Amino acid sequence: MKVLRSALYVLALPAVLFTTWWVFSAYSTNVYFPSLRRILGVFPATWFEGGWNSRIVVDGFSSVWRLAVGFSLATLLALTLGTLIGLSSRARAYCEPTLELFRAIPAPVLVPVISLFAGIGDEMKIFVIMLGCLWPILLNTVEGVRAVDTVMIETAKSYHLKTLRRIQKLILPAASPQIIAGMRQGLSVGIILMVISEMFAATSGLGFTVVQFQRNFALPEMWTGIIVLGMLGLFASLLFQVFENRSLRWYNGMRQASRDS
């Protein structure tokens, strides 16, 4: 029941927005802003025609695969570096200004540079996604590890827990609320960079398909691509919320107990 209620909360606003769009575009004659009815009319043929060779399978799989690999690599790298930096005050003093500098550089401006040495294949797109996802996860991991209660760490040391065991059983779980907040930010950035990198140079992917529709002046089909990207973002958000609720069950329970007391 709780899951159903959460799903209703998530879907309510998109439903209102789609209804508003349908009503206000019903009699549109503008070639650039066709009616939602016309857009949805070409939707099945555009994305589902062809079975396993349809655009939703071929281009959707390409985009999701690049996003999943880039995001996973960024998470792995950020957790490793963030834990090492967060545990050492000296490392933080040396690294944090540099990390802030690199974080301030928008990843999209690096796409032309990265394509010079990484080519225009999947490697370039995965690298761009990884680079964009890295900074929010890394900085949140550093901050989360730094904020772990020193009394808990000293207590763990007094029980002769080895460093790896302390990281696994105490530090990472204690820092997990902030780490997961960083992962959520990183996922949003990753979706944006997935589309941008596919728009620059690609032969498949959702971003590539949207640009192809725009160049061929197939504007209703182009709008269907934007809807597909929105649905992908919504699905990714719901999936991440399930992961977040499972991973932070202890934290949410602790907060609920604190509110009830």
Secondary-structure blueprint:
Blueprint: H1 2-24, H2 36-47, H3 55-87, H4 89-104, H5 111-118, H6 122-146, H7 150-158, H8 163-200, H9 206-215, H10 219-247, H11 249-260
Helix pairs in contact: 2-10, 3-4, 3-6, 3-8, 3-9, 4-6, 5-6, 6-8, 7-8, 8-9, 8-10, 9-10
Question: What this model shows, in words?
Answer:
With 261 residues, the protein is mainly α. Helices cover 82% and strands 0% of the residues. The protein has helices at 2-24, 36-47, 55-87, 89-104, 111-118, 122-146, 150-158, 163-200, 206-215, 219-247, 249-260. Helix 3 (55-87) runs antiparallel to helix 8 (163-200) and helix 5 crosses helix 6. The model has no long low-confidence stretch (mean pLDDT 87).
The biggest beta sheet, please?
Answer: none
Distance between the termini: 25 Å
Count up the helices: 11
Mean pLDDT: 87
Rg calculated over all Cα atoms: 22 Å
> What would you call the shape?
globular
> What is the helix fraction of residues, given as a range?
over 70%
Strand fraction? under 5%
Low-confidence stretches: none
Tell me the number of strands: 0
- What would you call the structural class? mainly alpha
Sequence of secondary-structure elements: HHHHHHHHHHH
Keywords: Cell membrane, Membrane, Transmembrane, Transmembrane helix, Transport
Protein name: ABC transporter permease subunit
Subcellular location: Cell membrane
Family: Belongs to the binding-protein-dependent transport system permease family.
Give structural attributes.
ABC transporter permease subunit; membrane; mainly alpha; 261 residues
